[in-house]
Amino acid sequence: MDRNTITGIVLIALILITSTFFLKNTPEAEKNAVTTLQTDSLANKNAAVVTAQDSTVNAVSDSARNAGLPAGWANFTSGENKSVTLENEDVKINISSKGGKVNRVELKKYKAYNGDPVILVKEDANKFGFNFAAGNTTVNTENLYFTPTGVSAKAVTMVLNLPDGKSIQQIYKLADEGYLLDYDLNLNGLGDVIPRRDMFLDLNWESSIIKNEQDSTIASHNTTIHWRKTDESHDFLSETKDDEKKFKENTQWVSFKQQFFCQALITKQPFVNVDIASKASTNSRFLKDMRAGLTLPYDHKPVQNYDMQFYFGPLHYKTLGKLNLDLERQIPLGWSFFLTSWVNRFIIIPVFNFFGQFIGNYGIIILVLTLFI
User: Fold this and answer.
1) pLDDT tens-digit readout, 82-91
2) What CATH fold (topology level) applies to the domain 49-330?
């Protein structure tokens, strides 16, 4: 064989290897993956759905929890838990008035291995709350009951109207399409409530990763926490064992990543302290339990605003790449090896997506891809 023949064989082998790797690990080419497109149309898209949930209050535990709160704040530690639904053509998100937080996320165009909708966030497996000192105790927003205002099909503001004109606002806005949820936190007039010595606001975020794939072992080995610092460096915890990490460096986003999807929190004002942990779940319903302790600076301004976004969606290279946040680096494309990464990003993915529009058999696509290149 001459040199050109040998070169061609080597190139074809490289393409086949990288194609196989890509197909096994991304939702864009998984034949039996959870990415079955749903044909359901968007119902009631012009009206938000608000439902009430039962709320049982224990008087003894309330008294203990409310001790030390500023005057009038105890009124917000009990109430009716209402759920507001924000919905577009891609995602359905429920916001709970208790805690004013996201408590359920459904991806409308994807199904789990058993045919059920893909659920990324579930009510009983999710925590999200800000902690700060107030009065003689520590307040956790997750334990407070907010009032939904400005409710529409794609927006809601969860408000806590506190005494003396003070307030906490959590503002959610969903676009007509896509997987980004805008999230703003406004602290109004809390500068004289939070002690002057406290210069930070702590966020506790936890989520148990729901089983959406049939093979739990493979899914678990593709599930962990990723993050990106403001210096553009990206890293992640171990995928195959329990792992944790603490660091004090400006961080732009943290993501709870699973095999084909992720839930990421992106902030314009960087997190200055990060404490993250991922461990195998002891509950058979879940793959892993994720935890992120995140710290934001607090400047005691009359109005303190934090601009953030959630991404609840698939690990789709083109979709993530359009965000210009390096979220696509969660997809295992051989980033540490330049040639493999380059082939996957600029040859395999675009050409595969092109032929995928016309050919339903992935084996044939690989063959055509090899001949084409």
Assistant:
1) 999 999 999 9
2) Beta-galactosidase; Chain A, domain 5 (2.70.98)
